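Task card 7
Instruction: Convert sequence to structure tokens.
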Amino acid sequence: MTSKDVLVGVIGGSGLYHLDNLTFVEKVNPETPWGYPSSPITICSLPSGSKIAFLARHGQHHSIAPSAVPSRANIAALKSLGVQVILAFSAVGSLREEIAPGSFAIPTQIIDRTKGIRPASFFEGTKIVAHAAFGDPYSVKLIRWLEVRVEKALADEGRGVVLHKDKCIFSTRAESIMYRAWGGDLINMSALPEAKLAREAELSYALIATATDYDSWRPHSEAVTAAEVFKTLTDNANTSRHVAAAVLEDLHAAALDGDILSEEKGSMRFSIMPRTGEHNQEDIKKLAFILPDYFTPGDVAN
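Output:
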């Protein structure tokens, strides 16, 4: 199932289960070698007629916990529709006083605390080895493209945008203080393995983080609770829809132009270890789903 005119995919996080002011086209639910995505993917038309794909990370009714999100299926399903750029939204906790609940951020780095907990590679479970470059986990050109446009959109709402680093779990008070000491700015549960899988699939990927709470580090504050988080989700989700509406048309045009895709396109060519006759057709067929330029069923040494 491929629709090459769907170049931009949006992944909605907690509270963001749909986009506004778009024309519904269809819902699709592509089956991938890693199963089905978190929810059926909604294909919508922008005012220009260009199409975008929207996926709810935690399911349409938030029925999937962060540790159970089928991230491999999500990324693979979006790529199967022709998506080349992913704009993801995610609720986060703040580790900095100046990043108050309700603030928006565009992360530039990640410290991974999910290793060994969630499937983190399309190559896991195969006999083919690859090492994707991940020094800059988010697409640098895409981030630079987004900065001015997101800041302008947020100005309409009276909010500001800042650049930060990102971590990937809720914390005890001691852990939260430790992450601050490491130089961290945000706590998040979804950035990984999503960003790494997008890199393996050669997709441009950026995250817009929406702060809901101060996590657990403030000495004179209550530790963060789920109830506190949900107080801010509704307002953040509404602003996220505004931001998406403000940037998607231009983002589609930029994807057509191709410059913001140039970092990722072809990036896996030298990351895949040389193939031999030991590699079986099942593995090659699976990986051809996301990397058809490098894997051709029937050819063990493509």
